[in-house]
Amino acid sequence: MDESKRDQSSTSPEAIVIPLKAFHNSKTRLRDELGIFGAGALAEKLASHVLEASKPRARIVVSDNNEILDFAATAGAIAFRTAFLSLNGAISDVYGQLGGSYKTLIIVHGDLARPEGLGVARFSENISIYTDYTGTGTNVMVLPTGLDFRFAYGPFSAQAHEKEALRLGVKCEVFRDSAWQFDVDEPGDTRYLAGQ
Fold this sequence. Notes:
This protein is α/β, with parallel strands linked by helices. The protein contains five helices and seven strands, in the order E-H-H-E-H-E-H-E-E-E-H-E.
């Protein structure tokens, strides 16, 4: 992590973690609808919106891509470089390394259609899972640091993360109808962006 790029505006014990991959490699399932350049531009727009909505909390963008890390620094966020290419590997990396710096990490997908409130919402000290609209994906997860937590992003990640909390003996709350239930990943998901 490049400490020179740290956001100095917040001393909160919580931080929002946003994993991002190169925009030109993002949203492949939307390319038929938007084209390659359109899908990449949408990914950047969504990530910018999530970063803005996450203020005033500390914001950490985790990526292996130089352009994404520069994008994070330009937005005033902490740029965390990871060597892991998989989402689970990258999140495990940042979670393990930042455990001594933050009491809680709030892991947020960078493609939320309606990320408003992320920076000011009050979260419990337990594990909290905010699912996608299907109830199976993990769009936002609030996680105390210092746990031997095994991340399982992918199909039915919400259920897998809930089981992981049970394994660890940590109370877990699951929210299936939050404002953060809509992400933009599949053809047709752009309808959730109405009004933006």
